[in-house]
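As a warm-up, study this chain.
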Amino acid sequence: MLDYWLLGLAMMLVIEGLMPFLLPELWRETFRKLVSLSDGQLRFVGMTAMMSGLLLLYWVK
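Now compare it with the structure written out below.
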């Protein structure tokens, strides 16, 4: 079971590192825009990301 968690963490780190490695200027601009969002908008982005991840997990399983 721990192997799956570590595999998931490793995959997340690889995917998270792609954008700053390949497109650092776009990545920086994206964070500038995120900082200017309100708390409610950020919560919506976070909720959307979590729901997308859960749907993907459900679809894969």
